From TrEMBL:
One of its GO terms (biological process) is DNA integration. Residues 157-255 form the Recombinase domain. Keywords: Coiled coil, DNA integration, DNA recombination, DNA-binding. This is Site-specific DNA recombinase. The lineage of its organism: Bacteria, Bacillati, Bacillota, Clostridia, Lachnospirales. Pfam families: Recombinase (PF07508), Resolvase (PF00239), Zn_ribbon_recom (PF13408). Residues 367-394 form a coiled coil. The active site is at residue 10. Residues 2-148 form the Resolvase/invertase-type recombinase catalytic domain. GO terms for molecular function: DNA binding; DNA strand exchange activity. SUPFAM superfamilies: Resolvase-like (SSF53041). InterPro entries: DNA_bind_recomb_sf (IPR038109), DNA_bind_recombinase_dom (IPR011109), Recombinase_CS (IPR006118), Resolv_N (IPR006119), Resolvase-like_N_sf (IPR036162), SSR_resolvase (IPR050639), Zn_ribbon_recom_dom (IPR025827). It comes from Butyrivibrio hungatei DSM 14810.
Length: 450
């Protein structure tokens, strides 16, 4: 009798339960000696699960099975934890080659009908145990999510390290922020991927696939979520940015053109109900583009699990812009009252200018690595430079908005508001308006003067 033995262990912990490879081998040798069998070879798989047959030693045994009369294991689940795989091995691999199967612990062999029946029964129990393990793992993951803890595993999100059950931001977090910034600048996912390939490396993933960037853009872990629950880790992206990205992703998925142009009231307008920034969105049909303002907290999906849905309904962008323009043009010079003590401090645009410089540098880099989309990149570069120039003009003004400056802005508005560029109009708005609060039935303007 030529005997082939198969032993397996999936984890180091199994050694503590009597499943170590040396212990299995010792028992098999003693069993063969007691039966008077010749143990020809021991096939050993260390660190492989029994839930599938993708195991080197098992595959080798299957190739060499015709050389043996018996396949011997310590216990049925050492061969496989799957009923389907177990019966396939015994009936379709071992039996046609003339090899019987013997499991020591269960005391049966397949040379008898009852042995065949017992294999089916015991394999079913092995699969039941496997199913119970999977269910416990699933429950454990869900429990960790409820506590705000990452579920572990090999797929650690880019930008984080996993230590003691918590995700901790690492030096790759800046790459995640750059991805979000570039996407909101209107740069395609493909071009973002090219930029990352030429500038960065990462420990846990690679930038070889556009799908990697797309998953990062839609993964709520970056706003501090674990599944449907608030996580204990530090977010890398703020809610407003994440929300804007989801809208743009949806627009691209639905075939709508992403709006990358300037919007008159971006940065000035807020939701009157919850205080969140209102953003500019668009829908595109074959005939027309429809722009509208929408509260940043009004979406369904991931954000609805953090905040209630806002009362503000989407408002037509052109109609709101027209209302604000008319209110500006209605202001009379004699109505303006402002004291030096109450003068408004004009915004410091140095950080915004610095960000634009970074965006310009990234676009210049893309010029070098992208053989296509050059015209689109050139247009974005031109727009960024125009925006930077406008901000620099604002920064060059005195730091306090006196009555003289207010009056000058009103004069320019009266003369050129309709014919001016978006950047010129935004400069006028910035000098006159502190903020605009949008309600369903009204628009409230807070002026920089009384």
């Amino acid at each position: 009798m030529q005997v082939a033995a198969y032993i397996r262990v999936s984890t180091d912990k199994q050694a503590d339960k009597g499943y170590s490879l040396p212990e299995q081998e010792e028992r098999i040798r003693a069993y063969c000696k007691s039966k008077g069998w010749e143990l020809s070879k021991i096939y050993s798989d260390a660190g492989f699960t029994g839930s599938n047959m993708d195991r080197p030693a098992l595959q080798e045994l299957m190739r060499e099975i015709s050389a043996y009369d018996i396949v011997l294991v310590n216990k049925l689940d050492r061969l496989s934890r799957s009923q389907k795989d177990t019966l396939h091995l015994i009936q379709d691999i071992f039996a046609p080659a003339g090899a019987s199967f013997v499991s020591m612990q269960e005391s049966f062999d397949t040379t008898t009908p009852i042995g065949i029946a017992m294999v089916g029964i015991l394999s079913a129990f092995a699969q039941l145990e496997r199913s119970q393990i999977k269910e416990r793992m699933k429950m454990g993951k869900e429990g960790r999510k409820k506590k705000g803890l990452w579920h572990g595993g090999v797929n650690i999100p880019t930008g984080y390290d996993y230590k003691d059950g918590i995700l901790l931001p690492n030096d790759e977090a800046e790459q995640v922020r750059i991805i979000y910034e570039m996407f909101l600048e209107g740069i395609s996912i493909r071009d973002i991927t090219r930029y990352l390939q030429s500038h960065f490396t990462t420990r846990y993933t690679s930038w070889n696939y556009v799908g990697t960037v797309r998953r990062i853009l839609s993964n709520p872990v970056y706003i501090g979520m674990v599944g449907d629950y608030k996580g204990q880790h530090e977010p890398l992206i703020d809610l407003e940015t994440f929300d804007r990205v989801q809208v743009l992703l949806d627009e691209r998925k639905q075939g709508g053109k992403v709006s990358t142009g300037k919007h008159l009231m971006t940065g000035f307008i807020y939701c009157g109900y919850c205080g969140s920034r209102v953003r500019s969105c668009c829908s595109v049909t074959k005939a027309k583009r429809y722009g509208y303002y929408r509260c940043g907290r009004a979406d369904t999906g991931q954000l609805s699990k953090l905040d209630h849905k806002c009362e503000l309904k989407p408002k037509n962008e052109n109609e709101i812009d027209e209302i604000i323009k008319n209110e500006i043009l209605k202001v009379k010079f004699e109505d303006v009252e402002i004291s030096d003590s109450a003068a408004t401090v004009l915004p410091d645009n140095s950080e915004e200018i610095k960000k634009i410089d970074q965006q310009i540098n990234r676009l210049i880099d893309l010029y070098a690595i992208c053989g296509d989309n050059v015209e689109e990149l050139a247009k974005k570069l031109k727009d960024l430079k125009a925006k930077k120039t406008a901000l620099e003009k604002i920064s060059a003004k005195p730091k306090r908005a006196t009555k003289k400056h207010i009056m000058e802005s009103l004069r320019i508005a009266q003369d050129t508001f309709d014919s001016g560029s978006i950047e010129d109009k935004r400069m006028i708005i910035d000098s006159l308006i502190s903020r605009v609060d949008l309600y369903n039935d009204t628009v409230k303007i807070t002026w920089k003067f009384s």
